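Lest this sound abstract, we think one record worth quoting, the chain in one-letter code, the fold tokenised, each line plainly labelled:

>
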Amino acid sequence: MAPPPPSSATVSQPVIDSASSQTQPLAVVSERLPWKHTFISLRVPNFRIFAIGHFVAVIAVWMQRIAQDWMVLELSGSVTAVGITVALQFMPSLFLGPWAGMMADRFAKRKILILCQSVAGVLAAALATLSLSGVVEVWHVYAIALVLGLVTVLDQPARQVFVNELVGPKYLRNAISVNSTTFQLGGLIGPALAGLLLTAVGAGWAFAANAVACCSTVTMLLILRRDQLFVSAPAPKRKGMLREGLRYALSKPTIYWPWLMAGFIAVFSMSLPVLLAAYADHVFDVGAGGYGLLNALVALGALTGAVASTRRRQLRLRSVVFCAGMYGIMLCLAALAPSMVWFGAVMVLSGFWCLMFLTGSNQLVQISSNLGIRGRVMSLYIMVLIGGQAIGGPMLGWIAEHADPHVALLVSGGVPALAALTVAVVLARKSSLLLKVDLKDRRHPVRIVSRTAAA
């Protein structure tokens, strides 16, 4: 049985039964929910099962990511090589992202996820075997990262749309925030565990743990109650489906502006683990344990941001752009930090603003998309967000290695901050908005108002 609505502020919609009715974007909750409803989407049994399995999987994925990057750095001695690994893992999203979105619209999302997680488990097991046997080389990691990227490009759009099938339109925004909270909590635990394993027994056991976690994810998907899923009718195959998705995305400002900002963030700021590896090895000299700690600090801030996003009363384009700009500013401040203590503190703030941007842009794109085309729209968003890292990883790794990690971090934060400022000015002019400062107003000393209201 579906849970009762949390309050009168939640706008409910009927269950989608046919493709002809898939023309309405999702409702937006504009009132602040009571604290007891912060994670209300977990009342849905299927989503609760999914969230538990997702949490275990995220811890293991973070362990593999940290262990993989550090192992490449040890094997090659090159930060650029770490960036190449990131590029190979995310490059397929640049070329195959729209196709994967079309598959998510046409086929059962649950079956796609079961297939992808099964293959990911095999890849993790192969990497664990190579590492534990002592024969692993950099090209092995490159090859497995590339194949894993092919799996990810199909997994991600299906996973994004599948959340709606788990909870229905009423709880989608909350479920996205809960997913982000789960991801960041796993990101807090995973790097710390990876640092311990790297120091104690080596990277191989982190890969083995991820293989086991993939098996648990497949089990979780198999035990979901299919009769309680909000399954929408698949989109029929026809010519021009990809063009239709692109044209639809470009026709809505609440889709293409977050898409544009996601591009800047992805290329310049989402490859932060590459730069943290450089800082841990060349700036602070804290080794694998310190590298895991820095990633955990970012995840701590991101976890706070993910929880805060569940309390977000209104979802606006201007707030998404603002969060992107704040993330860039935090990275610039981190580049100027005089010690690891200050650097770690700013990393917490960086993680907070990064997650506020990511959850806000994800929610805004999803609630602005019609159900029948959401897979293709989300695949374009993911193509930019993940595929951009294929460009940014090697670029920032090269700057950190041949110039200086501080310079690389300044570039990583400065470019998105300038992009956010530019987009904010464009949006303000289009909407005739002004920045109003009133120090007498203690609650809202700085506000954005229309020209008419200001007059």
